[in-house]
Every structure is written in structure tokens, then in C-alpha cells.
Amino acid sequence: MAIPKEGEAVQIQSYKHDGKIHRIWEETTVLKATGNMIIGANDRTIVTESDGRTWVTREPAICYFHGEHWFNIICMIREDGIYYYCNLSSPFVYDHEAIKYIDYDLDVKVYPDGTYTLLDEDEYLAHSQQMGYPEVIDHILKRNVDKLVRWIRQGKGPFAPDFIDVWYERYLSNRR
Predict the structure, then answer these.
(1) pTM across the whole model
(2) In which residues is Mg(2+) 1 bound (predicted)?
(3) Domains contained in the chain, number
(4) Is 6 annotated as a binding residue?
(5) Closest C-alpha among 52, 67, 70, 76 to residue 148
(6) Is 105 one of the annotated binding-site residues?
(7) Which residues are identified as catalytic?
(8) What is the residue range of 112's domain?
(9) 29 occurs within a structural domain
(10) Could you give the C-alpha distances from 72 to 107, 129, 176, in angstroms and in order?
């Protein structure tokens, strides 16, 4: 698998299980990249939805993608604290065109006080039937929801106390 260069601006492409594009983030700056992980950041980037509508992100965000875990984590830096939006998804791939993954509907939103909510279970059930998610995907996703909840409770990975400070400072340094 290709590895983007640190400092490079890349696109993020989210797909659905049926192969159709779901959402595209136009530009994310790569802060760290290995064969297994990409940490990126963006601020006020254009997002294009599958129906062609566009919008612009409102705040700086640190993005965490892993090649082995079935989730990715968007850490949104807001005035009242850090909010995390965790997408249950396939592990990412990078192919010189973009960071790509399959979005499996389920999301976990984590609030600045550490509380969290599992979202979109109804969307997951509907898409699971519509697109015929295999049973193995269901098992993998349930295990990864549990893993994500453990990470949240243990302050692991992007939930570690200094994660945002370190990577946001690096992002700001790259922009100067």
C-alpha cells in the first residue's frame, strides 16, 4: 500500500458497502503516515455529499485512520472542548488518490466530559438489509464498537489526554 508524505494535502473518500461514494473531504493535511496509520488535520475544508451537496467544516479537526481497526476517529476542536466523531468503518486504504474506507453507518459520538452515545443503529439495520452486509461484518463491527468504548474509557489512542495538543500544534506549525 502507498503511504502519503507528511505535509501532503490528501482527499478523504468515504464509500458505502455497495461501492457507491458516500462523502468526500476535499483536503486534509497529513501529519503522520505509516503503513498502518494516518493522522491528518483539516480546518474549513469542503465536504461533498453523495447527492452533490457541499458544505464546509466549521472547526479544526484531527483525523485518525488505522489499517487494522474497523473505525476512524475525527477529533473536532471546539470552543467548549474536544468532540470525537467515531465512524465504524473498514480499515483505510491509501492509493495515491485518497484515503479511502467503507462507512458502516454506526457512529460513536464522544463529548468533552467523556460521555458517549452510539448513533445510527436504525440506519445500520436498514443498510445491512438493503446492501446485504455479511454476518462476519456484523461480528467485526460489534467487536470494534466494544474496542472503541474501551479506548474511550482508557484514554487510549486519540482519546489520550495530550493527543490533540500534540497533533494540533504540529498542524499549526505546518501552516506557518
Answers:
(1) 0.96
(2) 87, 103, 107
(3) 1
(4) no
(5) 70
(6) yes
(7) 23
(8) 9-175
(9) yes
(10) 10, 23, 27
